[in-house]
Specification:
The chain has 90 residues and is α+β, with helices and mostly antiparallel strands. The chain has one domain. The chain is 26% helix and 29% strand.
Length: 90
């Protein structure tokens, strides 16, 4: 069986995608290293977010389109799952 070679991940490339700027001043965003598709969701106050972006020299990505056709059953995030859970309990 032949083993596939994957290109190395460039850990110097860091990405941020803003999800929401909340009314309390907190920024909800996705942060990724190397590959924008593999990210963590973070929450920081606006000033700390801007400093985080400067320190990490991030590449800012466009916001994800709501209901984008490229989404699959595996495309979800904790924020969406939590919101869905609380909507069902109401």
């Amino acid at each position: 069986m032949e083993k596939r070679q994957h290109p190395p991940i460039d850990v110097t490339r860091k990405f941020v995608r803003i999800i929401e700027e909340r009314h309390d001043g907190l920024m909800v965003f996705e942060f990724a290293i190397g590959e924008p598709e593999l990210c963590v969701e973070m929450l920081l106050p606006r000033d700390a977010f801007e400093e985080f972006c400067r320190t990490n020299r991030v590449i800012r990505l466009e916001p994800a389109e709501a209901g984008a056709e490229s989404r699959t059953d595996w495309d979800w995030n904790l924020r969406e799952a939590t919101q869905q859970r609380f909507r069902q309990q109401s």
